[in-house]
Amino acid sequence: MTIRRVIGAAVLALALVAMVFTPAASSAPTVRGYLVGSKAPLTAAQVAQLKDAGARVQYVYRNVGGAAVGLTDAAASQVRSLGFVTSVTADQAQQLTALGDPLPGNGPYWLDLIDADHNSTFDGSGVWVAGLDSGFYPNWRDYFDPASILTQYATAFVSVGANQNQNQWDVGSDPHGMATAATVVGHRLVDDTNEGGWGTGYLTGAAGTYWVPGVASGAKFIPIKVCEPIGCFDSAVIAAYDYLIGLKRANPGQPLVINQSLGGGSLSPVEKAAIDAVNRAGIVLVASAGNEGDAGMSYPAAYEPVVSVGAGGWVDQWTTLPSKLWWLQNVPEGDIDQVYVAGFSSREKAGQHLDVVSTGRYLLEPYPCAQLYQDGQVISSTNVRTCAAKATPDNANAAPFQYLFISGTSFSAPTVAGIVALMLNKNGSLSNADAVPGTDATTGSPGRVERLLEQAATPIPPGSVTVIHRTGDKLTETWGSDATGHGWVLVDDALARA
User: Fold this and answer.
1) Looking at residue 429, what is its pLDDT?
2) Residue 445, Cα to own-chain centre: how many angstroms?
3) Structural domain includes residue 67
């Protein structure tokens, strides 16, 4: 899934929407959200000049040049004429791209598919992973080990203007944020006959409470809410970057990874500058490529200095239907033919840069309150904002299940963010600080972590395969070289490079 400006098990829609501030009266000039860029963080005098030019200053970035403001058309013209202003662009909305006993059998197929289950030395301990997403639901402790969530650093940047509210990160607007977090640090699974959304019987073979491992179960996760039901605004995403740069500067020796399972159709100058600042600060930014298939990648993933991730799956998915136990089957080792690239995974277009591909097809994740989050597409019945738990005899209108087999680059990105956490657990000096900023969104050079991932990846040749869909129907997936990047990342190969 992806979410960035939206949320999704895959990348949800990547529509760019310029949000409008409510005018004082129908005859008054319309005030819209904008991002004002500058070469360096704004001084108090420059903020005053913006206000004098008619800007309603919403959020001034501390570590990145620029601010989120409200402007009328006339004020936008005045602001553009200020000598320190380098850009004035619309504040766009993007879309999200969906503790107990050990699991029986071999564990989740997706960990086996990247050889994570063979790694017994590194678990991400000592590494922080920040998720720019939809935040958590209030009952998040039902799913996570509280010790793995750094609540003291969790926060929210809400809607146009990046209004910071630390108390909003776990109020819940979409389960996407919990699902992406679970991919990294793992989650509790309370099994019942109707869990998972499709198939019959128990997910594990018997009722009980189990622990589903994450790719980096020893890492600590920081939820940063940047998404609302209306989307994930650039101003909020940039404010999150700004916040994390400050956190890194306050903790210079702390390895920090950002997972961004969301994206949009363009990269504003201020956001590009913020990403460049993230890299310089020594933070590794991993982003989902998008779920738009042949329409191309989303941003920021398509920008070269960002670690971008496409989505693939396992050729033996759903082969036990109607039983759900396929996800615990063993994956044959050392065979790239066990992997396919999903049709929804965004292809690399001219000027775009796809780095690697990882597991993003039918991961079992906590997803309360969502009824039908289907294979890279969200439908209207998913937009349930009131339920917090599974249906019971006295609460029949609540969610029919708490967990879901879900797809999207939204999950392949945190898979790779987890792999990066393992690499930083082994070698805390690694970062992308040497990435070379591009002159625009189509240029630039990768940093060290990105290069190591690319070098470690196993190439995926173009191909086509017929697999079983969640419905039991056959599904043909076909991909070319524009869908594979440098290939499939295996944990042992990535650790060997770290």
Assistant:
1) 94
2) 22
3) yes
pLDDT at 468: 93
* H or E, element range at 237: helix 234-250
What distance in Å separates the CA atoms of residue 352 and residue 338, rounded to the nearest whole number?
A: 27
- CA distances, 87 to each of 37, 54, 270, 469, 493 (Å): 5, 16, 8, 46, 42
Q: What pLDDT sits at residue 452?
A: 98
35 close to 238: Cβ distance less than 8 angstroms: yes
Q: Which residues of the chain have pLDDT under 70?
A: 1-27, 94-106, 173, 197, 230, 369-401
**Residue 443 φ then ψ, to 5°:** -120, -175
Q: 133 and 240: one domain?
A: yes
Range of 86's domain? Answer: 20-90
pLDDT tens for residues 7-66?
433 333 222 222 233 334 445 778 888 899 999 999 999 999 999 999 999 889 999 999
> What would the two tokens of residue 185 be?
């640090």
421 and 129 Cβ atoms separated by less than 8 Å: yes
Contact 55, 36 (CB under 8 A): yes
**Are residue 301 and residue 267 in the same domain, yes or no?**
yes
Q: Which residue is listed with tokens 């991002």?
A: 35
Cβ neighbours around 272 below 10 Å, total = 23
Q: 3-class DSSP state for residue 174?
A: coil
